[in-house]
Each structure stands twice: as C-alpha cells, then as structure tokens.
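Researcher: We plan to redesign the surface later, but first we want a full-length starting point. Tokens attached.
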C-alpha cells in the first residue's frame, strides 16, 4: 500500500518524466506491486471508432494460450463498457459469464480480480486503467491512491502531447450545447431561441450527434452523450 509520502514521490516522478514510457512505467510498477499480471492503459474511443491509437500500454497475457500476450484489442469488448458504469475506481471479480462475453476478461481468467480506474479529469476525453490478476488485492486506500496516480499519468501524457482532449467522432461544441439543453427538457423552439439559431439547425445538430453516438432517438442520444462524457448536466 502506498503511504502519503510514497504517493507524493510517485506523482512528482510522473510530473518530472519527459517520456511517455517512463510515465507508464511508474504506473505499471505500482500495479505490479498490487499483484497485477494484466495491465491495460487506454483512452476510450467514440462509438464505431477504432481504439488502436488510444492504447498506451497493453500487457495482457492470455491464460488460454500459454500466457502469450494479446496483441489486439477490440473497441467493442464489453469489458471496456465496465469503465463507463462508475466514476470511481472499483474492484471486479471476473466470472465465467464475464469471460463468455469479453476477450479481455476471458484472457485474464475467471476468478481473477480486476481493478477498473476511470480517469475523469480530462473531460470530455475518457481514459481507463485496467489491472487484473489471480492474487491482485486492493482496498479502499489502494484504490484512492491508484485514482490519483492514474489521473497524474494521463495529465502528464497530455502535457507531453501524447494525447489531446478530443477524440475522432467527438461532438462539436454546438452539438454538445444543443444536447445539454435537450437534457434539461428544452424544446427545439426553446433551444433555437436560446442559441439564436433556427429550429431546423437545432434538429440538424441533434441528427449529427445521433449519428456520431450511434443512437436511435433523441433520448438515446442524450444518454449516450452522458455515457461518453460529451455533456454534463
């Protein structure tokens, strides 16, 4: 467990690091100390977008394949959706059912513990740290420390120009504003008046956002915009 002094030292080391791999090494080292045998550090893509350029570290041996590390990651893997279910770090026990619906979880193995750490400070960009292992242990203090480290890592990666605040397929500023007002129950006419645009333009922004978020109707569009960190209410 990291004490307060250790955590400060690691955050300082992250802040001083001048290369992405040094930043990630500090985080990985801490995860290994917790018992992690599998590590994934990644941004989350928008719907129907590839994840490859958002993955920063993928050390994920496949227990079904003699521990050979996985080389590909699907943006549609259901394990990635677990990160959207909470804005705090949490522990998840992988079950046989989980493994049937996720290559990531199947590779780690049923019975393994997995830590899921959402990084929320880079809004609207979303990032996550996943760590799993049969002997992984993390109490509330460890999870809190891991949240701070993960936030520090992604903040430093942004400072180094490794990541930006935008993702391919992200909503425009005007699309976000229209959806925010929609989420508060405003009609198209009211939104048009507030933003000083036509109702036709309001509907166009809603349609564009719906396509980007792969949503089926206005309500679904608002829900997906919230899930993918595009708006806040």
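Model: Full-length starting sequence:
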């Amino acid at each position: 467990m990291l004490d307060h002094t250790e955590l400060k030292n690691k955050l300082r080391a992250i802040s001083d690091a001048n290369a992405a791999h040094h930043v990630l090494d500090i985080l990985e080292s801490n995860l290994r100390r917790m018992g992690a045998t599998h590590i994934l550090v990644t941004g989350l893509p928008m719907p129907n977008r590839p994840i490859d350029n958002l993955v920063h570290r993928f050390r994920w041996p496949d227990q079904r394949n003699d521990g050979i590390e996985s080389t590909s990651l699907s943006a549609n893997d259901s394990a990635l959706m677990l990160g959207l279910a909470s804005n705090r770090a949490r522990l998840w026990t992988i079950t046989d059912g989980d493994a049937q619906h996720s290559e990531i979880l199947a590779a780690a193995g049923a019975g393994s513990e997995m830590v899921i750490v959402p990084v929320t400070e880079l809004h609207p960009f979303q990032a996550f740290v996943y760590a799993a292992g049969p002997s992984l242990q993390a109490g509330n203090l460890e999870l809190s420390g891991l949240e701070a480290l993960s936030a520090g890592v992604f903040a430093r990666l942004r400072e180094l120009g490794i990541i930006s605040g935008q993702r391919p397929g992200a909503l425009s500023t005007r699309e976000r504003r229209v959806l925010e007002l929609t989420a508060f129950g405003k009609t198209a006419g009211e939104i048009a008046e507030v933003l000083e645009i036509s109702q036709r333009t309001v509907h166009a922004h809603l349609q564009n956002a719906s396509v980007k978020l792969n949503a089926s109707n206005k309500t679904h569009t608002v829900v997906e915009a919230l899930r993918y960190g595009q708006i806040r209410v």
